[in-house]
Amino acid sequence: MVLIHNRWDLEKVYAMLAEKGASKLFAEAGVSIPKEDRSSHNNPVAESSTRYCSICMESMPENHMTRMDCGHCFCNNCKKFSLRYLLVSSSFILVSFFDLWIRCLFTYACVGWTENFIISIRHGKSRRIRCMEHECNSICDDSIIRSLVRERDINLAEKFERFILESYIEDNKMVKWCPRIPPCGNAIRVEDEDDMIWEVECPCGCQFCFGCLSEPHSHCTCSMWEMWAKLCDKSGTSNWKKESTKPCPKCHKLTQNDDGCDIVVCFCGKKLSTMNGTLVEEEFLGWLHTLSTARRFLSHSYVLAFYLFGDTFRNEMSEVKRETWKNLYEYHQRQLAGHLERLSGLLTSEVSIDDPNSKRISIIDQSIITDSLCRNLYNFIKNDLFGSLKSGPLQIAPYRPGGPLRAILKGSITTDDSC
C-alpha cells in the first residue's frame, strides 16, 4: 500500500522514510501497524469469545468478525443483523422523530465487511478500500478483502485481483501498457527514469515512445510531437494516411504504394500485397532497417526545425546564434538527404550479371555512411543545439541504428530488456 500510494517509486519511499520516519510514512499511505494478532477470519477463536460490533450494535462471536490492522472490528456479514435490529427497534417507543430517522438511516446503510468490499469493487474503488470506522483512514488488507469476497463471489474476487495488477501498471510511471489498437495486453517496464524517454518495441511489433505512448519521434521531444500531431490533424494528414497507406502485418508501420505495383516491400523486410495486405514471403533485410531508420530520422528533423527555429523557441537563443545553428543544421540535413537518395537508388537498381557483389559492397558502404551521418546529426542536436538553450537541454530518446529497443516477454507482463 505504501508503494501504491507513492506510485511505486521506491526511491521516493526511501527518501520519505529517512525524512519523516516510518510512522508518518505509513500514516500518509493509510497503513496501520497491527499491535496484536488479527481476529476471527484468518485466525479463528473460540465461539464463546465475543466482541461488540458497532454496525449491528450487538456482541457477536469473534469467528464471525474481522479486525483490521487499525484495530477496528466489524462483522463479516452484518446485513442480517441490521434487519433484526430494525425489527427489535420498532417495538420501542422512540424519544423523537429525529431518533427514528437516525435509526432507520443507520440500519439500511450499514453492512458488514464483505458487503462493503463488494460494493467498493463494483464501483471501481478496489485499489484503496478504507476501514468502515468513521474518520479512520487506514487501508484494508488486500488478503482479507480477497478472502471475504471469494466466499461470496469468486468472479468478483478475480476482478479484484486484476484491479490490483492494473494498479501496479497504471500507477507505476516505470510501467506502461502497449498502446496498440486493438490491445495486445502486454505491459512494458523500464529499469530507471533515464529509460523513460526511450523508444521501445513491444513483442507484438508495436513501436512507440515510452514517454508519451505515441509513435517513435526521436529526435523531437514529446511536447513537440504532440503539437505536430495536432497540427497534422488540422491539415488533414491523418485522413490522407488512412486513405493512402496500409499497415504492415508484421511491424504495423504504414506503407505506401507509389510505384503502381501491387507488391510493396515494407521497411521491416516483409513483402505484402496492396490488394489484400497479406504477406508474400518471409525475409529479413538489414539494409531496409537502415533506410527506414534514416528516413524517419530525416523526416523528424524537419519537425524539430519547425519548432526550434520558429516562434516556439525564439527567446531561447539570440538571432545571431539562431542563424548560425540553423545553417549548420541545414548542412547536416542536406548531407543526410543526399546519401539517403544514393542508398535508395542502390536498393532499387538492377544487379550487374558480371559483378553481382559490387552492388552489395556499395550498399554496405552507403549504409555505414548513412548511419554515421544520422549519428552526427543526433549529436549535433543533443549537444550543440539543445545545449545552447537558455532554459537548459531538452530530453530526447537515444539514437539507435536498429530502431526502437525491443522488449522481451517475462511471464504475464512484458518487460523491457534493459531490466
UniProtKB/TrEMBL annotation:
<keyword id="KW-0833">Ubl conjugation pathway</keyword>
<dbReference type="InterPro" id="IPR044066">
    <property type="entry name" value="TRIAD_supradom"/>
</dbReference>
<dbReference type="GO" id="GO:0008270">
    <property type="term" value="F:zinc ion binding"/>
</dbReference>
<protein>
    <recommendedName>
        <fullName>RBR-type E3 ubiquitin transferase</fullName>
        <ecNumber>2.3.2.31</ecNumber>
    </recommendedName>
</protein>
<dbReference type="InterPro" id="IPR002867">
    <property type="entry name" value="IBR_dom"/>
</dbReference>
<comment type="function">
    <text>Might act as an E3 ubiquitin-protein ligase, or as part of E3 complex, which accepts ubiquitin from specific E2 ubiquitin-conjugating enzymes and then transfers it to substrates.</text>
</comment>
<keyword id="KW-0863">Zinc-finger</keyword>
<dbReference type="GO" id="GO:0061630">
    <property type="term" value="F:ubiquitin protein ligase activity"/>
</dbReference>
<dbReference type="InterPro" id="IPR031127">
    <property type="entry name" value="E3_UB_ligase_RBR"/>
</dbReference>
<keyword id="KW-0808">Transferase</keyword>
<dbReference type="InterPro" id="IPR001841">
    <property type="entry name" value="Znf_RING"/>
</dbReference>
<keyword id="KW-0862">Zinc</keyword>
<dbReference type="GO" id="GO:0016567">
    <property type="term" value="P:protein ubiquitination"/>
</dbReference>
<dbReference type="InterPro" id="IPR013083">
    <property type="entry name" value="Znf_RING/FYVE/PHD"/>
</dbReference>
<comment type="similarity">
    <text>Belongs to the RBR family. Ariadne subfamily.</text>
</comment>
<dbReference type="Pfam" id="PF01485">
    <property type="entry name" value="IBR"/>
</dbReference>
<dbReference type="InterPro" id="IPR045840">
    <property type="entry name" value="Ariadne"/>
</dbReference>
<comment type="pathway">
    <text>Protein modification; protein ubiquitination.</text>
</comment>
<keyword id="KW-0677">Repeat</keyword>
<feature type="domain" description="RING-type">
    <location>
        <begin position="49"/>
        <end position="304"/>
    </location>
</feature>
<dbReference type="Pfam" id="PF19422">
    <property type="entry name" value="Ariadne"/>
</dbReference>
<keyword id="KW-0479">Metal-binding</keyword>
<feature type="domain" description="RING-type">
    <location>
        <begin position="53"/>
        <end position="78"/>
    </location>
</feature>
